[in-house]
Write a structure and sequence with these properties.
The protein is an alpha/beta fold. It is built from ten helices and eleven strands. It folds into two domains: 108 residues, Periplasmic binding protein-like II (D-Maltodextrin-Binding Protein, domain 2), CATH 3.40.190.10; 124 residues, Periplasmic binding protein-like II (D-Maltodextrin-Binding Protein, domain 2).
């Protein structure tokens, strides 16, 4: 019994001393913690408004409608990491997007064609984020499967006017395309080598071209490969079907860059620069592929 009492007393004394030590050390530790907190707060990236994870602001982009799918996936994945940043996209066409960034009304312009020398002379800077095939599309009921670049040029200049000249049915060809100023149109006409296309109808978006080709058995048009669906048929060009692989290896001839346009000498906001850097990074390759385009 005495042994038990002695052990209990020893234990109580030890606990009492530990408690006292804890109080004193705690004060010292708290003081140190306060100092550490102060120091860490100044140096901790999480407390720095300029660091990743606390980035905030609005990024305004405008331009190519063909880049809509690529922009959607880039916006979504970027904003997941930077929830306080809002990336706005407006699809008004490549020409309008380039004009907007040069005028300073948006942070980043979007062009689905390479920049022209005169645009670069005005200060436009080309940042290629992806490559895209321009698919030549016909109605799914059309029996024509393969066209040469020369035949495509002849169709769009009006030299070939009937599908029977190409092994199809005796039907007049309805040539559809994008409006003047469209990046898809500019890229298509430049690659195919035509200056004066003869269009039956011109449309303000890729979706309109696809929709009207889908509803017209005589029609032919062109569209971003990323926008092509099963309502239309993409023909082979010189025996090569448009695909991610054939765009990447260069065997599919009708392809163009997707460009984020900035203005020389104009510093982007921190949020806009971060978004541009993200779009140009290797980590987005799988997202760009998911959107139907090809990382450069």
């Amino acid at each position: 019994m005495k042994r038990v009492c002695s052990l209990l007393l020893a234990l109580m004394l030890a606990l009492s001393l530990a408690a006292c030590g804890s109080t004193n050390n705690g004060a010292a530790d708290n003081g140190g913690a306060a100092n550490d907190t102060t120091n860490n707060s100044a140096n901790d990236p999480a407390d720095n408004g300029d660091a990743a994870g606390t980035l905030s602001g609005v990024v305004n982009t405008d331009g190519s409608t063909s880049m809509a799918d690529v922009m959607a996936v880039l916006e979504e994945t970027f904003e997941e990491v930077n929830p306080d940043v809002n990336v706005n996209y407006s699809g008004t066409g490549s020409g309008a997007g380039i004009e907007a960034v040069l005028a300073g009304t948006v942070d980043i312009g979007l062009s689905s064609r390479a920049l022209k020398d005169e645009e670069k002379a005005e200060g436009a800077v080309e940042n290629i984020v992806a490559l895209d095939g321009v698919a030549v599309v016909v109605n799914p009921d059309n029996g024509v499967e393969d066209l040469s670049v020369e035949q495509i040029a002849q169709i769009f200049t009006g030299e070939i006017t009937n599908w029977s000249e190409l092994g199809g049915e005796d039907l007049e060809i309805a040539v559809l395309g994008r409006e003047d100023g469209s990046g898809t149109r500019s890229a298509f006409e430049e690659i195919v080598g035509v200056e004066n296309c003869v269009y039956k109808n011109e449309y303000g978006s890729t979706g309109d071209v696809i929709g009207n080709v889908a509803s017209n058995p005589n029609a032919i048009g062109y569209a971003s490969l990323s926008a092509v669906d099963d309502t239309v048929k993409a023909v082979k060009v010189n025996g090569v079907a448009p695909s991610e692989d054939t765009v990447k290896d260069g065997t599919y001839e009708i392809q163009r860059p997707f460009v984020m346009v900035t203005k020389e000498g104009t510093e982007l906001s921190e949020a806009a620069q971060a978004f541009l850097d993200y779009a140009m990074s290797d980590e987005v390759a799988e997202y760009i592929a998911a959107a139907g385009a090809v990382a450069p």
